[in-house]
Each structure stands twice: as structure tokens, then as C-alpha cells.
Design brief:
The structure holds two protein chains of two kinds. Chain A is built from 29 helices and 16 strands. Chain A is α+β, with helices and mostly antiparallel strands. Chain A folds into three domains: 2-390, no CATH class; 433-523, Transcription Regulator spoIIAA; 547-732, no CATH class. In chain A, the strands form four sheets. An eight-stranded antiparallel β-sheet of chain A has the order 9-10-11-12-16-15-13-14. In chain A, a hairpin with a 6-residue loop joins strand 11 (599-608) and strand 12. In chain A, helix 1 (2-39) packs across helix 16 (360-374) and helix 5 (119-141) crosses helix 18 (388-403). In chain A, 45% of the residues are buried. Chain B is of the alpha/beta class. Chain B folds into two domains: 1-130, Rossmann fold (3-Layer(aba) Sandwich), CATH 3.40.50.620; 134-282, HUPs (Rossmann fold, 3-Layer(aba) Sandwich), CATH 3.40.50.620. Helices cover 45% and strands 21% of the residues of chain B. Chain B has twelve helices and ten strands. Chain B has helices at 19-33, 47-61, 76-86, 102-107, 110-117, 148-162, 175-178, 185-212, 215-218, 234-242, 258-262, 267-272, and strands spanning 8-13, 36-42, 67-72, 91-95, 121-125, 137-141, 166-173, 222-229, 247-251, 277-281. In chain B, helix 1 (19-33) crosses helix 2 (47-61) and helix 3 packs parallel to helix 5 (110-117). Chain B is elongated and about 75 Å long. Classes of the chains: A alpha+beta, B alpha/beta. Chains A and B meet through helix 13, helix 20 and strand 3 of A and helix 8, strand 8 and helix 10 of B.
Chain lengths: 735, 282
């Protein structure tokens, strides 16, 4: 019973943190919900309803820990078609049916549906959805509402809309376009600015705050009406009373029609794919390394979708951007999802009239950015680097999705992939003969360390990947796994990509995941997908060093350190620092190390968040290996934000007799007593008399850095110096 | 357990490029097992043919090989099966292709037809060789089945006679028995526990069988057990391939209908793609 008690205690302890992160998430969910609903031609409040119902139902019944549920980007394309062809009330019926279907999939344990699609085809479909969103909303962002039949036509009209901005007769339209362009630039440039206070409020909320503020500024100070044309303001947001009294009546009359069934099918498909991809991505960010119960989550999402549909809301899916914001703000369990919904209700209760002061172009700028991110050139470049044939799959899916529709698009993507596989292997029977065979063998080796050995025969592609996945899922991530492909003649890109994901997951959780037996495939030209993903081609042609790099090289010489500029991907030694628990490290480079490698100064590139809230950060850090054990702690300067954090449950450890230190520094850690005894007089004096650095200890290593940007030459020297002296002080202290 | 299960060994011979290798393997085995060798040829009797067989058998005749040649015209499967009955053959050796073509699989090659219908044990050779390739590692199934005891003891007997130094007994446990679906951390822990328990249960069962085998037979043989969670029949073949076993010893199937071939299970999987030489004990 004490375990249960402990759980409750832990829940209560982390509750403030989760309320806080739920609040931050609601800030991004509000504008996104409104925007996504409007982009789907549904009433703006429908998006909020989906988020509220999703947040409440999924947080109570769901099987994942740190995900956020709400209206999704991927569904905009499908909902748009459903609403325009079926009408709003029938579309609600379709949403309800797709929820029921999703629920059924959950009960049938078919949550793995998305595993059966080749990843390049999924990428192509998502890019197409991105273009559909971008194409349609771009015109509204520039205050030029147009109606076309085909999503391709919308895209072709973009240049016309841009020129049209300069020829508006109506001043109101010009102002509306300016609002749109300003908002878009906020979305683009926001991640580039690293300021704690600015970053506390997500970019979409800044857009909302600034535009509502501007509207009030005009009204109260300039005493004149808002210059933005009233046609381009958000139409009425109903108050809570109205929402309750005006629940739409879903119209099930067309349930047997082909377009209705098509919509239901498409909604279910996209909802499950989007949710699954998001859950997978968010699980990798979980600092507590938990595994989500996908089927339970799918069931909860289905139920939430049914509820949302009856209340006049959109489909509920797991969303990646909001979930990653949740992780970065300290969400640790499903309570944050619940509170994100609660805060949305509060916003609607209090501010439903203020929300009508948001100009439509500003809101659509958020969606244009979202659409761009889905179809960004980076994706295409990444796919091209994997192989030309992947690009074919990608573009076939993309164009057919745009031209015909989602279902046809993804189906053609699957078809093309299969054809390419047949061509590559020059055999159709090879696939036909082996597709039904249970080609995956997994056993735990009984001699030695109990390594899990997985052997795959014949071929492994998107067609039978689920069999491999089921075996891989049965391996605890902190164990050692060896995947042997030496008896497998063909491995496709989808599998390689997923294996790469497993590899990351295992490394993060202190396990080992090794793929072997692909060496033979590499020399075989018939095997273009293999291995290239796993072993990046070594950089043979070294580019010229930049000025900063030559400076670092010189610095290395002066300090008798070894310098190497190449990128290093094995960054597992950083995974155990508090700071990196919720961040994804890309690589380290420009590394300076001493002979015994216990002091390493390096530049690092890592990212925080996913999708539209993704921020790539480069910084210079110092890693020192100690030969004694010290308590785990995090030390940073104390600021206003830390006071806010402290309020949200991050406890600053007070050091008696050193009130000045406690006032200036923010000290965090689990084991309070040993930290208190560790911070003796010498150490405290050292910290007090030196510039502020962020210091992170993971037990026997420390990580030191000052700013979340690259250090200059001089700063690098001071950092190095600080680290060396810190180590001496730690060695001298009697702890 | 009868001390010598294989008193008469039969082999079907045709004039194929593998003839010499097949005859050499069979003769060698007959010597190892102290058994009489019966060459069964489907076709007319002729002096030429007899001479060819004799030349191939020459090196073994010197070592006191007791042999006989049977000629009979007719349907190969029928001829071999009837010869097996008439000559009281306990083990029939057949050369086989490692993998059947798609078409042949459903119609059935000669070797596989005999395997399915023979009343005696069958040894399928996929890579017969003229020179002896030592047999070092034998993999044997440890299914929960009344026949398993016989199979395992035969495997030990063969290992002893062929000087194999390692036997691995594979317990295949089907996923249904685990009965826990892995969804999240908790179910993963539970399924790992269940698997551990099943493994212990299987291990004790197999240990009992091993204990009943006379210790003289077990001498100098390293005995391993390995439990595998996977499709019955298929995973043991896959395993034998992975560990590069030289011989796989299996229980004979109970009864096979055409439906079993359409939806293959147990031994049919192994017959579709022979992982290594396979001995089916009856």
C-alpha cells in the first residue's frame, strides 16, 4: 500500500510543476486551436472544444505520460474537405464516427496502423498537408481571401496575392496584411532570440497578446477604431453559455454516402498516424524514460473525439509541438494535459470577447508557418540524402495527395514504394513467398550477460516491419540488444529509420542497440537504403577552418590541448546531466581536450522542442570528469524566473549561514543533505567571487557553461580557467 | 530407449551431380551407426549402374560396410516408401534442395513427400559432401510432446556416434502462452516475469528428460538449453541457422493435411526452407 501512497505523494509534489507547464501549453494551444479550426472552415471555437475535451478525457484515460491532446495540423486538410463537401453538421457526424472507429482500433490493438506505411510516403503526405494549409492560409494572411477548387490552384495564386498587397485601395486591408506579415516574422524569428523572459510565452501567444494590445491601444489611447478591416477579424467567439446552449446537432443522414465514409476513413487514418508519430517522438523526450501505452492512448483519443464531435469540436489527436512545449516546461505526468484544458476553459470564460480583437491574418500567419514547417525544404533535403528513390516516393505521394486526395495519395505512396522494392530486388516472388513467414527470431542468450539477440530473415520492409517491431518492443530498453540482418536480403528505408529511433531510445536509457550484418549489403549496389543512415560518411574533404576555429586551434596549442573540429555524434556522456534530460543533442564539434580527456571544451548543437516550437541552439560547454563522487546538483544564478519556477515546485536548496549565496544562486538537487554538506566554505567563496556559470553535476562529472550561444575565444579561455579552478576547489574540499 | 535405433539405413539414389556425395554421406553414417546400407534406385537394373555405385562405395567397403542395392521401376515416392517397408529400413536419407520453389512447395517435391509419408525416421541432407564435414553442434527440439523424449535421446545417440560436442535443446514457447501484451513499462515488466517463469518451467521439464538419459551417452557433450518465444517450428529452424548448427533433430509431425501446407506450422516451416541438415525422428 505504501507504493500507492508514494505515488499520490509524488503526484502532489509534482502538481505545481504540471499546473505551470499546463498553463504555458494553454498559451500556445489557444491561438493554435482557433487557427486550426478556422483553417478547416469550422467555427473557431471548435478547435478550443477539441483541446478542452481532449485534454480532459485523454489525461484521465490515456496511456501516455507527457503528451498533450488537441486539434491537429494533419487533420486540417481532411476536415476542410469534409466540411466543404458534407456541410458542418454532417462533418460533426463524420468526426464522431471516426472517433468510434479509432476507439475500435484501440480495442483491436491496431494502434500500430501507422507502422504499415513507408516513412517516405508518410513524409510526402504530411508535406502535402502542409502545402494545403500553407496554400490556403497564405492568401488570408495577406488579406486576400480567394476561393479555388483545388489546393494546387491556391499554391499557384501565391505570387498574385503578394503583388496584390501593394495595390490595396482599402487601407484596412493593407493594415490586415501588415499584421499578417508581422506575425509571420514573429514566428520565424522568435526561436532565434534566446531570452528567458521572452521565451516563457510561446510565439503564438505573443502574436495574440500584441494584436489584442494593439487593438486596445487604438481604442483607449488613440480613441479611434482599429485600422484593420473588420472583415479580417476573428468572427464571434461564443461565450460559455452559448457554447452549451448551441450545441450543434450532428447530421447522420449521409452516413451511407461514399464521401461520408471516405471522410470518416481519412480522418481516422490521419488521426492515428499523427497521434502515433507524435507519441513516438515525445517518448524520446521524456526525462523519466517511460514508455507510452499506445493502444490505451488511441482508445482515449477515440473517446475524446466522439465527445468533441458531439459538443461541436474537431478531432482530437496527440500533438507534437504542444507536447514538446509541455516537456520543456517541466510537465511530468498527465495532469499537465488536464490543466492545459482547464486553463483554456478559463481563457474562454474570461476573455471570449477579447479574442475577437485578434486579426485573422495574424492567426493565419501561425498556420502558414506550421504548413511551411511540415513541407520545409529541410525535409526534402533529408529525404534526398537517403536516396533518390525515396524522393520519387515522396513526390508521388505529395502530388497525388494535392491533386486527388489524401487516401489516394497515401495509397499511391505505398504502391510506388512496393514497386520500387520489386525493381530494386528484381523479384516479385521474393516478396510474395516470404511475406507471411514469421521471419523474426528473438531470444535472450542464456550464456553470458543475457543479451537479446534478434535475427531477421528474407526481407524486412514496411510490409512486415510490425513483426520486427513487436519483438523489439518486448526488449527492455536498458538491456543490450543485437539485431542481426546477415540472413536478411533486403532492408528498406522505413525499417532503417525506425531502427535508428530504437537506437536513440536505447542509448538514452542506458541500453545498447546494435545493428549488425549489414556490411555485406553495403558493398552490394542493389541495396541503396541500407546503412547509409547508420554510418554517416566520414568527412574526407575537410573544409577550411573558420576564423573562430583557427583561434580555437591556437588556444589549444597554448594550453597544450588537442583540437579537433569534426562533428562527434556519440554524446551519450552528456545524457545524464539534468540540463539535457529533455533536450535532443545533435552533435558536438570544435572539441578541445587534454591528454587524459578528463577536461573537454566543446561546441554543441542541440534542440529543444519539436516541430513549430523547435529551437536549435549552439553553445560552448566544458565537461570535467572527476575522480571522486559528488552529489548531483544544478547551480545557476538566481533571477526572477527562478522565483517563478520555485513557485511551481522547483525547490531552491537554502544554505544556512550563507544567505547571500542563497540569494544570488539557485541551487537544485534531489539529495538535499549531501548537497548542503558538499557546499562548504571554500566552494561557496569560490562561486561568490567568480562570474556566474551554469554548473551541472551528475555525480562524477560536471558540466559548465555560461550562455546558450557559442563562446568567443576569450570567453572560452575564461570558461576553461573557471573549470580548472573549480575542479581544484572540489578536490581540496573535504567532502 | 533402444540402444541402436538405426539398424538399416536406406538412401534413394538417382544419377544426379550429387550422387557421389550422397552415397558417401550415407555410407559414412552407416559405418558410424553400425548399420546396413540399402541403396534404392528407381529405374531398370543394369550392370553399368551397379558398377558406378560400387566405385563410389569402394572406400567404405574396405571398412566392412554391409550394403545392398534395390532396383525398382515406378513412381519414385511409391518405390522408396515400399522399399522402406520391405527392407525394414529405420532411417531414410534424402538429398534435398535448401529451398523449394514457390510452385513445388504446394505440389511437393519427392523428398518432402517421402518425409511426410514415411513410417521411419528421415534425414534430409542439404549439403552432402564426399569428404567428411564433422558434425559439431546438434540442435534438438524440446517441445512439450510425448515424442520429445524419444527425439532427444536419439539426438544424444547421434551426437555420441558422430562425435558431436554440443547439443542445444530448444524450447519453443508460443506467444499465446505468455498471454501478456507489451504496451508500456508495466506490461513489459509483467511479460518479462511471465517469460522468466515459463523458461524455468520448460528448463525443469527438459532437465528431467536429460536426467533419464544414461550418462554414458552424455559423456563429453556440452548440453545447453535455450528457450525461444516465437512461432513453433519456424523459430527453431531460424535458430539452428543462426547458431550454424550442423544438424537439427525434430519430432515427426502428427499428421499433415493439405491445409497445413497452405497455412504452414511446425515442421512444415522447416520443410519449406531447410536451415541445415534435418533429422526427423519417428
Amino acid at each position: 500500500m505504501s507504493q500507492k501512497k508514494n505515488k499520490t505523494k509524488l503526484f502532489l509534489k509534482t502538481l505545481p510543476k504540471n499546473i505551470f507547464s499546463g498553463f504555458v501549453v494553454s498559451l500556445i494551444a489557444l491561438p493554435l486551436g482557433l487557427g486550426l479550426a478556422m483553417a478547416s472552415e469550422a467555427p473557431p471555437i471548435a478547435g478550443i472544444i477539441a483541446a478542452v475535451v481532449g485534454g480532459i478525457v485523454v489525461s484521465i484515460l490515456g496511456g501516455s505520460n507527457i503528451t498533450i491532446a488537441g486539434p491537429g495540423n494533419g487533420l486540417v486538410g481532411v476536415l476542410l474537405i469534409a466540411i466543404t463537401t458534407l456541410g458542418l453538421n454532417s462533418a460533426y457526424a463524420a468526426i464522431i464516427c471516426s472517433g468510434a472507429l479509432l476507439l475500435l482500433l484501440g480495442f483491436l490493438r491496431m494502434g500500430k496502423l501507422a507502422d504499415f506505411f513507408p516513412s517516405s510516403a508518410i513524409q510526402g503526405m504530411l508535406a502535402a498537408i502542409g502545402l494545403i494549409i500553407l496554400g490556403k492560409q497564405f492568401h488570408i494572411m495577406l488579406a486576400n481571401k480567394i476561393f479555388r477548387d483545388n489546393s494546387v490552384d491556391y499554391l499557384l495564386e501565391i505570387p498574385n496575392s503578394i503583388t496584390a498587397v501593394f495595390s490595396f485601395d482599402d487601407k484596412g486591408l493593407t493594415y490586415a496584411a501588415i499584421a499578417g506579415i508581422l506575425s509571420l516574422s514573429i514566428m520565424v524569428f522568435y526561436p532565434k532570440i534566446r531570452n528567458k523572459y521572452l521565451q516563457l510565452i510561446p510565439a503564438p501567444m505573443w502574436i495574440v497578446i500584441l494584436s489584442v494590445g494593439f487593438s486596445y491601444y487604438c481604442e483607449l489611447i488613440l480613441k479611434q477604431p482599429n485600422p484593420i478591416s473588420s472583415n479580417y477579424m476573428i468572427s464571434d467567439i461564443p461565450s460559455v453559455n452559448e457554447i452549451i446552449t448551441q450545441i450543434p446537432k450532428p447530421d447522420f443522414g449521409e452516413i451511407t454516402s461514399l464521401s461520408f465514409m471516405g471522410s470518416v476513413f481519412a480522418l481516422t487514418l490521419i488521426a492515428s498516424i499523427e497521434s502515433l508519430l507524435s507519441i513516438k517522438a515525445v517518448d524520446k523526450l521524456d526525462p523519466e524514460k517511460r514508455r507510452s501505452n499506445v493502444n490505451k492512448d488511441i482508445k482515449a483519443l477515440g473517446l475524446a473525439t466522439i465527445g468533441s464531435g458531439f459538443l461541436g469540436g474537431l478531432n482530437v489527436v496527440t500533438v507534437i509541438a504542444r507536447s514538446s512545449v509541455n516537456v520543456n516546461n517541466g510537465g511530468t505526468n498527465r495532469a499537465s494535459n488536464f490543466f492545459h484544458a482547464t486553463f483554456l476553459v478559463v481563457f474562454i470564460l474570461l476573455f471570449s470577447t477579447q479574442l475577437t480583437r485578434i486579426p485573422l491574418p495574424a492567426l493565419m500567419a501561425i498556420l502558414v508557418f506550421t504548413g511551411y514547417k511540415l513541407a520545409s525544404p529541410d525535409t526534402i533535403a533529408k529525404i534526398f540524402s537517403i536516396g533518390k528513390e525515396q524522393l520519387i516516393i515522396f513526390f508521388v505521394t505529395l502530388f497525388i495527395t494535392l491533386k486527388v486526395g489524401l487516401i489516394t495519395g497515401i495509397a499511391s505512396g505505398v504502391f510506388v514504394t512496393f514497386i520500387i522494392h520489386i525493381v530494386v530486388n528484381k523479384s516479385f516472388f521474393f516478396f510474395l513467398r516470404n511475406i507471411l513467414k514469421p521471419n523474426v527470431l528473438m531470444f535472450k542468450e542464456e550464456s553470458g550477460l543475457g543479451v537479446y539477440y534478434v535475427s531477421v530473415k528474407h526481407f524486412c520492409s514496411f510490409l512486415n516491419y510490425s513483426r520486427l517491431k513487436r519483438k523489439l518492443d518486448a526488449i527492455p530498453e536498458h538491456k543490450d540488444a543485437i539485431i542481426d540482418f546477415s540472413m536478411c536480403e533486403f532492408v528498406d528505408h522505413t525499417v532503417m529509420e525506425n531502427l535508428n529511433n530504437y537506437q536513440e531510445l536505447f542509448t538514452k536509457r542506458d541500453g545498447h542497440f546494435e545493428v549488425i550484418g549489414l556490411d555485406m549489403h553495403d558493398t552490394d549496389s542493389q541495396h541503396p537504403f541500407a546503412l547509409r543512415r547508420l554510418l554517416p560518411v566520414p568527412n574526407i574533404f575537410k573544409s577550411n577552418l573558420t576564423k573562430r576555429q583557427t583561434n580555437l586551434e591556437e588556444l589549444a596549442k597554448n594550453y597544450k590541448l588537442a583540437y579537433t573540429s569534426t562533428k562527434r555524434k556519440d554524446t551519450h556522456f552528456l545524457d545524464h546531466f539534468m540540463f539535457f534530460k529533455t533536450k535532443k543533442i545533435h552533435h558536438i564539434y570544435n572539441q578541445l581536450s587534454n591528454y587524459s580527456k578528463d577536461i573537454i571544451l566543446f561546441d554543441i548543437e542541440f534542440s529543444e522542442g519539436e516541430f513549430i516550437s523547435k529551437e536549435v541552439i549552439r553553445a560552448t560547454m566544458l565537461h570535467i570528469a572527476l575522480d571522486k563522487n559528488i552529489p548531483e546538483f544544478t547551480l545557476d544564478r538566481e533571477g526572477f524566473l527562478e522565483k517563478v519556477y520555485a513557485f511551481a515546485g522547483y525547490k531552491d536548496i537554502p544554505l544556512e549561514n550563507y544567505s547571500d549565496f542563497s540569494k544570488r544562486f539557485f541551487l537544485l538537487g534531489e539529495d538535499q543533505d549531501s548537497i548542503k554538506s558538499f557546499f562548504g566554505n571554500d566552494l561557496i567563496q569560490f562561486f561568490e567571487s567568480n562570474p556566474y556559470y551554469h554548473v551541472d553535476s551528475n555525480g562524477n562529472n560536471i558540466l559548465v557553461f555560461s550562455k546558450e550561444r557559442l563562446a568567443s575565444n576569450k570567453e572560452a579561455k575564461t570558461l576553461l580557467n573557471f573549470g580548472k579552478r573549480l575542479r581544484e576547489v572540489i578536490y581540496k574540499s573535504k567532502h | 530407449m533402444s540402444l541402436n535405433p538405426f539398424k538399416t539405413i536406406g538412401i534413394g539414389v538417382t544419377f544426379s551431380p550429387n550422387l557421389k556425395a550422397n552415397i558417401s554421406e550415407a555410407a559414412r553414417l552407416a559405418l558410424f551407426f553400425d548399420a546396413k546400407l540399402v541403396l534404392i534406385h528407381v529405374g531398370e537394373k543394369s550392370k553399368d549402374k551397379e558398377n558406378t555405385f560400387k566405385t563410389f562405395l569402394k572406400p567404405f567397403i574396405g571398412k566392412q560396410l554391409n550394403y545392398d542395392v534395390v532396383f525398382k521401376v515406378g513412381n519414385p515416392v511409391g518405390v522408396i516408401l515400399s522399399a522402406v517397408n520391405k527392407n525394414m529400413i529405420d532411417l531414410v536419407i534424402l538429398g534435398a534442395l535448401q529451398r523449394e520453389t514457390f510452385f513445388k512447395y504446394y505440389i511437393g517435391s519427392i523428398a518432402r513427400k517421402i518425409t511426410r509419408e514415411a513410417k521411419c525416421s528421415v534425414l534430409l541432407l542439404i549439403k552432402p559432401s564426399i569428404k567428411r564435414v564433422p558434425c559439431q553442434h546438434i540442435v534438438v527440439n524440446g517441445l512439450e510432446d510425448p515424442k520429445t523424449k524419444q527425439t532427444i535421446s536419439t539426438a544424444f545417440y547421434v551426437a555420441k556416434k558422430l562425435n558431436a560436442n554440443k547439443i542445444t535443446i530448444v524450447e519453443e514457447i508460443s506467444q499465446q502462452e505468455v498471454a501478456v501484451n507489451v504496451d508500456d513499462d508495466r506490461s513489459l515488466r509483467r511479460s518479462t516475469l511471465v517469460k522468466e517463469r515459463l523458461k524455468l518451467r520448460e528448463d525443469t521439464r527438459v532437465k528431467k528428460i536429460i536426467n533419464d538419459i544414461p550418462s554414458g551417452v552424455k559423456e563429453n557433450i556440452l548440453i545447453n538449453t535455450q528457450s525461444i518465444f516465437g512461432k513453433r517450428g519456424y523459430s527453431i529452424g531460424h535458430y539452428a541457422q543462426v547458431v550454424r548448427a550442423d544438424l537439427l533433430v525434430m519430432n515427426a509431425p502428427t499428421k499433415i493435411t493439405f491445409w497445413d501446407r497452405l497455412f504452414p506450422h511446425d515442421i512444415e516451416h522447416i520443410l519449406t526452407e531447410l536451415p541445415t541438415d534435418v533429422l526427423i525422428v519417428r
